[in-house]
Amino acid sequence: MASDVTRERIAALPKAELHVHLDGSLRPTTMLELAEAQGVTLPASDPEGLAKAMNAGGSRSLGDYLDKFATTLSLMQEPEALERAAYELAEDSAGENIRYLEVRYSPILHTERGMSLEEAVEAPLRGLAAAEAAFGTRTGLIICGMRQMDGGASMELAELAVAFRERGVVAFDLAGREDGNPARRHRDACRYAAANNLAVTIHAGEGDGAESIAQALHECHARRIGHGTRLQEDPALEAFVNDFRIPLEVCLTSNVQTRVASTFAEHPFRRYFDAGLVVTLNTDNRLMSGTTLTEEYWLAHRHLGLSWEEMKEVCFLG
What we know:
Elements: H1 7-12, E1 15-21, H2 28-38, H3 47-54, H4 62-67, H5 69-74, H6 79-94, E2 98-105, H7 117-135, E3 138-146, H8 151-163, E4 169-175, H9 187-195, E5 199-204, H10 210-218, E6 224-227, H11 235-243, E7 248-250, H12 252-257, H13 269-274, E8 279-281, H14 293-304, H15 308-314
Parallel strand pairs: 1-2, 2-3, 3-4, 4-5, 5-6, 6-7, 7-8
Helix pairs in contact: 6-7, 8-9
C-alpha cells in the first residue's frame, strides 16, 4: 500500500549507494570552513545561500551540471580536505542507514597544489576507514579516469587504482563529459584494470546515446553502467544488459537536472525495473543535486509508483 511508504521508513531501510561523487557531495558548512582556511572565495557566504548556489537544478545539459564542480574542486587540493570530505560523506550516508557505500572521484583533479596521486588516494581512504570504524558502514573507493583527458592520463589512473586494489579501491571508472569523448579512447586503461582483476564501471548513456553504453560494455569491459538512462534507445542492447545482469546505477534527480530525462515521471527507471533489469538508486552528487538516497527512493515511489516491496527488491532485500 502507498500509505506504507514514508520518508522515515525509507530512511530506516538498509540501503547501498553505488554511485556518488566525492567532489559533488560536500557539506556547505564544510565548504565555508575550508574556504576561510584556504582563502578561497565562494558564491555565497552562508550555508543556505551556498547550497542554493551549488544546486544544479537550472542546468541545461550535463556540461552545465559539471561546471559546478570547479568550486568544490578548488577546496579539495589538500589531503586534509579530501580526508574530511570522505569521512563526512560516509557519516551522512550512515545517518540514513546506508550499509555499503562506494565513493568515486578522480585523484588527478586534486593535484593542482602539488599533492601526489598517491597522496590523493591515501587521504580519502583514511577518511572512509575512520568513518567505517565509527559508524559501521562498509565503504569502497572508485578511481575515475576522465573522458576529456587523453588515454595516457587514464592509464596512469588505472595503474594507480590497481596499485591500491588491496587497500580499499574497488573499481575503475570513466567520468566527465560524455558527448564527443568516446570510451574507446580509454579502452587500454579499462582493459588494464580488468586484466588485473579490478572491476570496471563506466558513466554511459547520460550525455550520449546507447552506442556509448555499447562501447563501455563491449570495448571497455564495464561490468556496471553509471546512469545508462538512454539504454532504451537500443532494444537489442537493453536485452543484452538484462540477459547478462549488468546493473544500472540510476540517479533520478541528476538525470532530470541534466535533461536526459524530461521529468521524474518520464524517467525510464520504471521501464527497466518492470523489464527485470538490475537497477539501483543513487544520489550521484548530494550537493549539486540537493538530494539524499532516502529522497531518491521517495521520488521513485511518488513519481514512478515504486512500492515498499519493490524498494526492498532494489535494495536486494526482497
